[in-house]
């Protein structure tokens, strides 16, 4: 905590998160365009057929559309709660990011950085529930319920995974966790914790197989009633959250900025991009997990596995 | 000004369509879906997320009211495309091109938006606006600027959570008498569409009942009961199906099936068999093609509801190639790979296991013929077999349509089975059960619509 944080650090953090969030959106759009686009015979009579490249512009057009779109309201909606929820998602994502080192050091090098990260991302519970509740409409409400159930299922395994990494380093400071991986990445010698982290990261960003709270089966769930700028902020917050949980995997399990030749910030970015790509792919490549089933898996498999991993790490370190 | 005009035009190139299909308009829906996929336009999940409403076919009274309500829920800039009449691909192409032009027409979009600005507070939730009492809105006695509380009595359409109750009000500053005209309700571009407010009842109805009634749920807790219709406007949902539910939390306590019909008689998926029964010459290959496409359509819908977007797109892509492009080389091989991936997905099977099997508690699996997983398996098997018979030139002489003997109208039996299968399930499971049965409402006789079975 010695020297003052340089002024550019928060700006760099914001820029990096936005770039990652946007990259996630673009990759998702391209992936969703893929299966329809690559049939050899098509080009002949279908000049209009959109290729993956034109799909890459979709997030930008979507943002433009939402910027000029009317904001609609539901009857007796609690507008304040919805606004708090919609903006809250963005806020918690950025706040969770401040303890993550982009290169050598994070924006805020807190002694209990791992706990801070966890505490901030739990704010997503509140944000999502408020958005779902405030709209005064069935599908958002059901989406909100779903996220609470999801939280019950993923949060404990998630915390155990984080604590395992901290225990391996003997410190809650994110920088120390990175330093402790000089010899061997935590992902290698605590693979169960890493796997649990990835699953819970998806659940936290309600992405991919964990998209239940915004699922297509309930008309978009929490965001079913959002339009215009509200929807844009919500989507942006969701993408930033995904970017943050992907970025956190790097210092916690993948050795942070360590790597040959390239500077640390570049290694951090590359590793983050790889994790992010994996998470985004899961959105197209896997079906949605229903919470009544996942709850079972979480409490009977993930939590015991995470605890066993914690025990192993405790024995090795101790 | 300049910037928002530019943004509007920039965004217009990629609309987010919400497709509503009336019964007997399956062919139009398929053409529209194929064209939307070709253009890479990703569908919206709710009216709030859409800016393009595509109505396939001619909805009868109940469905057309639902469409109207949904239309008022679509935020501007928005446009409406009504596909009806001669189902040709060019019809769809021209209509969608026109939609892009209208969305990019900054001036009329602004007029539309300004016209609706006054109708803000009365707005209601989107999702499920179907209500048979909604007809009262059309009797012309609601004038502009009348704050108005909903007045449907009779049925229990109340709800709301935590003791809130919904107030409708009908604003709009535009007289509404003029443009009534039942089915022929066009508009939506050029700001000439000006009915707002006050429809939409999925959450509740202040008509004298301010709070949701309560009841014991399956865990013995006393919870609010919400009356929520599923459908008819819902993505990846059988055209024209309405399931009136009583929800506690997201668990369905009661379910009742209704049909929001459409005008016409065509039964697209059964057509080859019906033609053969009438004595016209139809080849087995032609019937096999239709049958395979029908099952792929069902598979695609089930996978979409299951949240597996990539696989759903593949199924629909194969379906479109069979139906419209008719270049079959490579299709059986590609299907084989697709079917293998779907069958091997343990995650999918874990999610489908035990669903749609009456009498089994959720989560328990038992290998059987009925459940959703078994039906998916059967659809894949039947598609594979049909793909091997595409070139069969011999005349068709059976009546085994994609959903069973076409003369029996098997979807009517599916609809009767539905309430029993849905009661006690959570919404997520209920959607999968419906998609797993995938009733074809083109098969349902009008008599059934009247009876509200």
What would you say this structure looks like, in words?
The complex is a heterodimer of chains A (318) and B (453). Residues 37-49 of chain A have low confidence and may be disordered. Chain A is mainly α. Chain A has one domain (59-317). Chain A contains twelve helices and no strands. Chain A has helices at 8-37, 52-55, 58-68, 79-97, 113-134, 138-169, 174-179, 186-189, 191-204, 228-253, 264-285, 291-317. By secondary structure, chain B is of the alpha+beta class. Among the domains of chain B are: 2-117, 3-Layer(aba) Sandwich (Rossmann fold); 264-408, no CATH class. Chain B is built from 14 helices and twelve strands. In chain B, the strands form five sheets. In chain B, strands 1-2-4 form a three-stranded parallel β-sheet, with helices on one face. A three-stranded antiparallel β-sheet of chain B has the order 7-8-9. A two-stranded antiparallel sheet of chain B has the order 3-10. In chain B, helix 7 (284-305) runs antiparallel to helix 8 (309-325) and helix 12 packs antiparallel against helix 13 (427-437).
Q: Quaternary state, please?
A: heterodimer
Portion in beta strands of chain B: 5-15%
Rounded mean pLDDT score of chain A: 82
Helix content of chain B: 25-40%
SSE succession of chain A = HHHHHHHHHHHH
Biased composition (Basic and acidic residues) (chain B): 118-197
Region (Disordered) (chain B): 113-216, 390-411
Protein name (chain A): NADH-quinone oxidoreductase subunit H 2
Subcellular location (chain A): Cell membrane; Membrane
Question: What's a concise summary of this model?
Answer:
With 318 residues, chain A is an all-alpha fold.
Please outline the helices and strands.
The complex is a heterodimer of chains A (318) and B (453).
Chain A: H1 8-37, H2 52-55, H3 58-68, H4 79-97, H5 113-134, H6 138-169, H7 174-179, H8 186-189, H9 191-204, H10 228-253, H11 264-285, H12 291-317
Helix pairs in contact in A: 1-10, 1-11, 3-10, 4-5, 4-10, 5-6, 6-9, 6-12, 9-10, 10-11
Chain B: H1 2-12, E1 17-21, H2 26-39, E2 52-56, E3 58-59, H3 61-73, E4 79-83, H4 89-103, H5 106-117, E5 214-216, E6 222-224, E7 226-230, E8 241-248, E9 251-259, E10 262-263, H6 271-277, H7 284-305, H8 309-325, H9 331-344, H10 346-352, H11 372-387, E11 400-401, E12 404-405, H12 410-422, H13 427-437, H14 446-451
């Amino acid at each position: 905590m010695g020297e003052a944080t340089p002024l550019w650090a928060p700006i760099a953090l914001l820029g990096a998160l936005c770039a990652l969030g946007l990259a996630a959106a673009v990759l998702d759009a391209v992936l969703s365009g893929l299966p329809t686009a690559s049939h050899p015979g098509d080009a002949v009579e279908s000049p209009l057929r959109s290729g993956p490249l034109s799909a890459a512009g979709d997030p930008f057009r979507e943002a433009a559309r939402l910027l000029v779109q009317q904001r609609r309201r539901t009857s007796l909606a609690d507008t304040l709660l919805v606004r708090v929820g919609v903006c809250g998602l963005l806020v918690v994502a950025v706040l969770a990011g401040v303890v993550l080192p982009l290169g050598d050091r994070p924006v805020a090098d807190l002694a209990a950085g791992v706990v801070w990260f966890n505490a901030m991302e739990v704010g997503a519970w509140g944000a999502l529930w408020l958005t779902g509740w405030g709209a005064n409409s069935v599908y958002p409400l059901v989406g909100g319920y779903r996220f609470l159930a999801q939280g019950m299922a993923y949060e404990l395994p998630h915390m155990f995974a984080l604590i395992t990494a901290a225990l391996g380093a003997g410190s809650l400071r994110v920088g120390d966790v990175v330093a402790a991986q000089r010899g061997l990445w935590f992902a290698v010698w605590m693979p169960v914790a890493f796997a649990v982290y990835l699953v819970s990261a998806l659940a936290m960003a309600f992405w991919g197989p964990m998209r239940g709270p915004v699922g297509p089966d309930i008309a978009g769930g929490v965001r079913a009633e959002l339009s215009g700028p509200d929807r844009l902020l919500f989507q942006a917050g969701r993408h930033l959250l995904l970017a943050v949980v992907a970025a956190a995997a790097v210092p916690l399990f993948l050795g942070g900025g360590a790597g040959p030749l390239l500077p640390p910030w570049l290694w951090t970015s590359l590793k983050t991009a790889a994790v992010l790509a994996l998470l985004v792919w899961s959105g197209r490549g896997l079906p949605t997990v229903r919470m009544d089933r996942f709850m079972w898996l979480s409490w009977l498999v993930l939590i015991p596995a995470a605890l066993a991993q914690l025990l192993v790490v405790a024995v090795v370190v101790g | 000004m300049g910037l928002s005009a530019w943004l509007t035009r920039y965004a217009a190139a990629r609309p987010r369509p919400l497709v509503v299909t009336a019964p007997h308009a399956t062919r139009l829906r398929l053409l529209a879906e194929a064209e939307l996929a070709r253009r890479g336009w990703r569908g919206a999940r709710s009216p709030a997320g859409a800016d393009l409403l595509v109505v396939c076919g001619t909805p009868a009274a109940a469905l057309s009211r639902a469409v109207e309500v949904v239309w008022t829920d679509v935020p501007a800039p928005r446009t409406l495309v009504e596909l009806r009449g001669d189902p040709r691909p060019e019809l769809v192409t021209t209509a969608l091109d026109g939609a892009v032009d209208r969305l990019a027409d900054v001036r009329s979009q602004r007029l539309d938006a300004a016209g609706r600005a006054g109708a803000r507070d009365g707005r209601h939730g989107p999702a499920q606006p179907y209500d048979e009492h909604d007809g009262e809105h059309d009797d012309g006695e609601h004038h502009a600027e009348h704050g108005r509380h909903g007045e449907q009595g009779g049925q229990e359409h109340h709800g709301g959570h935590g003791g809130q109750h919904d107030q409708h009000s009908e604003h709009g500053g535009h007289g509404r008498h003029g443009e009534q005209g039942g089915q022929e309700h066009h508009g939506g571009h050029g700001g000439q569409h000006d009915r707002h407010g006050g429809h939409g009842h999925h959450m509740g109805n202040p008509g004298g009942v301010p709070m949701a009634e309560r009841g014991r749920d399956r865990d013995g807790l006393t919870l609010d009961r919400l009356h929520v219709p599923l459908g008819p406007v819902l993505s990846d949902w059988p055209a024209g199906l309405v399931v009136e539910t009583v929800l506690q939390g997201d668990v369905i306590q009661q379910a009742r099936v209704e049909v929001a019909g459409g005008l016409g008689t065509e039964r697209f998926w059964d057509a080859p068999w019906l033609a053969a029964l009438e004595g016209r010459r139809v080849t087995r290959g032609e019937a096999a093609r239709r049958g395979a496409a029908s099952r792929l359509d069902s598979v695609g819908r089930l996978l979409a509801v299951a949240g597996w977007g990539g696989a759903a797109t593949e199924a629909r892509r194969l379906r479109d190639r069979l139906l419209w492009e008719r270049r079959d080389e490579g299709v059986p091989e590609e299907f084989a790979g697709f079917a293998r991936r779907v069958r091997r997905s343990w995650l999918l099977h874990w999610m489908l296991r035990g669903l749609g099997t009456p009498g089994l508690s959720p989560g328990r699996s038992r290998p059987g013929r009925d459940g959703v997983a078994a039906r998916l398996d059967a659809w894949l098997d039947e598609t594979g077999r049909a793909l091997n018979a595409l070139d069969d030139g011999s005349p068709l002489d059976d009546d085994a349509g994609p959903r069973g003997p076409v003369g029996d109208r098997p979807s009517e039996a599916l609809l009767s089975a539905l309430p029993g299968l849905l009661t006690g399930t959570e919404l997520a499971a209920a959607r999968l059960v419906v998609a797993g049965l995938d009733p074809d409402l083109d098969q349902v006789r009008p008599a059934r619509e009247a009876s509200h079975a």
